[in-house]
# Entry
Amino acid sequence: MDSLPTHDVTLVSRIASGDGDALAAAFDLYSPAVLGLLSRILKGRTEAEEVLQEVFLQVWTQADRFDPQRSSPRGWILMLARSRALDRVRRRDSSRRREEEVAVDASPAALRPVGTERLEAVERRRRVLSALGLLSPEQRDCIELAFFEGLTHTQIAERLKAPLGTVKSRILLGMNKLRQALSS
Amino acid sequence: MMTGPGAPTHDPRFEELLPAYALGALDGGELRELEEHLATGCDECRRQLALWQGDLEELAASVPPVEPSEATRRRILRLAGSAATARAAAPQRPARRTLRWALPIAAVLALAVWGGVRQARLVSEVGRLHAERERLEQQVAALDRELTVARADNERMAQALSIITAPGSRAVQLAGLGTTPDALGHTFIDTRGRRAIFYAFDLPALAPEKTYQLWWIAAGRPFSAGTFNVDPHGHARLQIDRVDDVDKIQAWAVTVEPAGGVPQPTGEMVLKG
# Structure
């Protein structure tokens, strides 16, 4: 949960009250992160932009469902985006899915601010990337397969040809490491 | 935290399932058991789940950002603009009701319009490509027909030339008679190959139920060489692949007969030679 300025929370309540300017502001603020996530999950720019529009339509029509006690506006929108993108991935013909796994891009370019992105967001991303760096490659693979490809324990075990129990423990240990690194 | 006798009991064994549940990785019996437990309203599990979800929000934000295209931005802003317009168009409604009903509907309508326009563009593009393909197919078919006609013409000319230039070839000129005094005919006979070719000029077009019929007369008897009709210029051509008794032919003649031809000449004779 992040401690964003109340400005971000009021932005969502303004959207809920039908303020088009607030939607535009939220789009400018969050869309690069959302599109980055969508591109990562969908592995295609055109489809990612389509889903980006669906996500902001959902934000526009369901902003009143946002609960500031449960998540930040950014987190809420990102998780909406993830859910929509994974729905798309699941609907796709499995033969069309790319098999190769895309590693988290921790290159310096990835840490450069994009558009109106805030410096805090850049710093936060750097922190998560360094936390992910503490995980073993196997733990990171399992978490990324679940998070970015929507695979379950069983599917990850099949994909990696690893025992189910091993996959479960990699996810549990990896998530705990991530938690520790993020809260330190 | 719920308290009291009816409060759900926290079970620490579910805590280990929460990270995978937040990730969406849980399946099978574990998923079912955890969901049943969460459905009992265990506040501690819900609190921990929210924390895991917060971590995942961080993970989601760790992906390098990508700047959206200007077109996407414009569509979203248009969406917001159209909703604002819809709101302005319904000032008589109480504001809260307007926001609760008009905006989602306007947004959905705007998306539908946008989707419709996009769909229409795609449909129009597909239609254009279909039409283009059809046009090209027609063009190819027309060229194919022209080629076939040219080949057939070429073949006919080659055959005609072979008849006319064959050793021992004979030419017979037919003159117009009766109502067609200006008509003219030429028959070239390959006496060795027993083939002939006939050309007619300046014959009038006939009614559909009529046809011209070419005859050769040998030993005083007419033999049908076939029927023909003339083109808009009054021209015709008829090739005869088998001419019997070539040496006994006394004359060639053309008569007007019922469509399909007759075994013996019955109608007006228009050419003879």
About this structure: Helices of chain A lie at 6-16, 20-42, 45-62, 73-91, 119-133, 137-149, 153-160, 164-183. Chain A touches chain B through 72 residues (CB under 8 Å). Chain A has a mean pLDDT of 82.
